[in-house]
């Protein structure tokens, strides 16, 4: 393999600029010069150049998404909110209140710190679940982490998150972890629900919407919707997956649970019966 081919391959395979810069020990301008078609005659030089420009733009300026506060930017290392700052402030207060009294295990699901009233930094690279579709093996552990988060949140704080949507859950690919943000709708379990996510209204249990009472069931239902979403069913309903995905896994997604600890244990037993226990690298 020529030197040109090696650099072209590194750039095209890079999923994030920060990783590429570390692996090459080169600056952006040095990498760009090495792969640009004006200097590099490799047939994929233009493709590599375009990809480099895109991942560098994402790293420096972030990409735009929308959550319950409005628009936000993230480059997978930080999140900067640009929407309703009063809504963001409420989420910040709720999250910090939870974190202040949380066990070390629960705090692992919030691996970020606020550096202003409108932004926070991740301790590790984290990617919003929005628009992601993942293989079954990876959906398995994402759902497991989310169910454990719910169990810890419910048992240790007596609160329900009520906003577990793809915009407010981030994937930490290097460690098979997740980061949960978007504490906009945090409510005391069995207390009155004040707000829900308008964009994901159909993800909430009908009974909760009627009674306006926060339940463990509501968070568990949203986790299962995320599981279906990540398998490719953007509605989150999961019924379309019956003919294409693992039957017992889909049956779990379509079931209903009222107790987060019992649900987590049932899920882990189902995984143990049907899937090998292994760490599979996620290149994303």
Topology (SSEs and partners):
Elements: H1 3-13, H2 17-24, H3 28-35, H4 45-61, E1 63-67, E2 70-74, E3 78-81, H5 85-100, H6 104-107, E4 112-116, E5 119-122, E6 127-128, H7 136-157, E7 159-160, E8 169-172, E9 177-180, E10 187-188, H8 206-211, H9 216-230, H10 247-254, H11 260-274
Antiparallel strand pairs: 1-2, 2-3, 3-5, 4-5, 6-8, 7-10, 8-9
How many beta-strand segments? 10
Q: Distance between the terminal alpha carbons, to the nearest Å?
A: 25 Å
CATH 4th-level superfamily of the largest domain: Transferase(Phosphotransferase) domain 1
Shape: globular
Q: Let me know the average pLDDT.
A: 95
CATH class assignment of the largest domain = Mainly Alpha
Structural class: alpha+beta
Order of helices and strands: HHHHEEEHHEEEHEEEEHHHH
Largest sheet: 5 strands, antiparallel
The multimeric state of the shown protein is single chain
Q: Which CATH architecture of the largest domain?
A: Orthogonal Bundle
Task: Count every helix, treating DSSP H or I runs of 4 or more residues as helices.
Answer: 11
Low-confidence stretches: none
Q: Which strand order do you get reading across the main beta sheet? A: 1-2-3-5-4
Summarize the structure.
The protein is of the alpha+beta class and 284 residues long.
Tag the structure with descriptive keywords.
284 residues, alpha+beta, Transferase(Phosphotransferase), domain 1, 2 domains, 5-stranded antiparallel β-sheet, 3-stranded antiparallel β-sheet, 11 helices, 46% helix, 13% strand, globular
Describe the overall structure.
There is one protein chain. The chain folds into 2 domains: 3-61, no CATH class; 65-284, Transferase(Phosphotransferase) domain 1 (Transferase(Phosphotransferase), domain 1), CATH 1.10.510.10. By secondary structure, the protein is of the alpha+beta class. Helix 7 packs antiparallel against helix 9 (216-230). A 5-stranded antiparallel β-sheet has the order 1-2-3-5-4. The chain is globular and about 65 Å long. The chain has helices at residues 3-13, 17-24, 28-35, 45-61, 85-100, 104-107, 136-157, 206-211, 216-230, 247-254, 260-274, and strands at 63-67, 70-74, 78-81, 112-116, 119-122, 127-128, 159-160, 169-172, 177-180, 187-188. It is built from 11 helices and 10 strands. The mean pLDDT is 95. 46% of the residues lie in helices and 13% in strands. Strand 4 and strand 5 form a beta hairpin.
